[in-house]
Amino acid sequence: MSKSLYLLLMLVSIVSPISGVNAKEFTQASTLKVTTLSTMLASRGIGEWGYSALIEVDGKKILFDTGNRPETVLQNAQTLGIDLSDVEDVILSHNHGDHTGGLLTLRKTLRVQNPKALSRIHVGKGIFAERANSRNSILTMRDQLIKLGSEFIVYEKPTEIFPGVWLTGQVPRVHPEKNWSGKGQIVTQAGLVEDNIPEDLSLVIDTNQGFVLISGCGHAGIINTMEHITANIHPSKIAAAIGGFHLVSATDEHLAWTAKKLQDFGVDQMIGAHCTGIDALYTLRGHLASDRKHMVVGSIGDQFTLKTGIKAGFIAH
């Protein structure tokens, strides 16, 4: 075995899941703030086709996705007066460049202030798969990140990574929420198979108000993801959904079905950023009889907290 392969095996680990049991056995987060750092709309900072959010939960800071262009998240954080140098954990929702593009620059820049900054990279199983007709952006930078001292932690099943903070792992595609191109292919030993973004995972915060879901693109489907959460962590209301949900091309019929399901889960607050789609967000708002305070289009610098709910960016009003 080569030295480089041995190093790779040592630094890419697969964690064991915690089985879903009664909610009373779990710790629930008491404080939570989510701040958008990358999406298209911006009244402050730089907008782009990408997604990133800073999650602050019970004193822990986590970066969820890293935007598209190398400097966007770094510059937007500076504009918003946010220090990312003490963020040691980063979650990548899937392999696409509009979610991983800023990682290498962030790691190189922030490690000057804190050698452990973004050193733990949490990913879903399948993210390193070779794509036949597209570039797997995280695969091309994996070796560079490992050389910089980063560690990849791979998840297949729902796992509690901090008290009250969960990753979904891979999400079964029960409902036909097909929201990937269908053109991509994954290279396997048995040949080429359709690339349905199998590694797609979401972050879930368990609170006394219900679950708060943070998604990058939701390629597994927002309803599939929510059903996976309540079936495998514990049954609970899903109070808020934040991030990208890839409904931008959804039909009116599909949006009506999605809205009914969201209502069943108890969703009453939503920040629809990135690939959710502006018109799709407004359509969902109409079906749910919601308003501009509780369901908004995501923009740079918008926030969600357990105490005050959504604080939308100026451009999103």
TrEMBL record:
Domain Metallo-beta-lactamase intervals: 51-160
Record field: transmembrane: none
Annotated CDD domains: DHPS-like_MBL-fold (cd07713)
Entries under Pfam families matching the protein: Lactamase_B
Record carries keyword Transferase: no
InterPro entries per UniProt: DHPS-like_MBL-fold, Metallo-B-lactamas, Metallo-beta-lactamase_dom, RibonucZ/Hydroxyglut_hydro
GO molecular function: transferase activity
Annotated source species: Shewanella woodyi (strain ATCC 51908 / MS32)
UniProt xrefs under Gene3D superfamilies: Ribonuclease Z/Hydroxyacylglutathione hydrolase-like (3.60.15.10)
Cited PANTHER family: METALLO-BETA-LACTAMASE SUPERFAMILY PROTEIN, METALLO-BETA-LACTAMASE SUPERFAMILY PROTEIN (AFU_ORTHOLOGUE AFUA_3G07630)
Signal peptide: 1-23
Official protein name in the record: Beta-lactamase domain protein
Keywords, in A-Z order: Signal
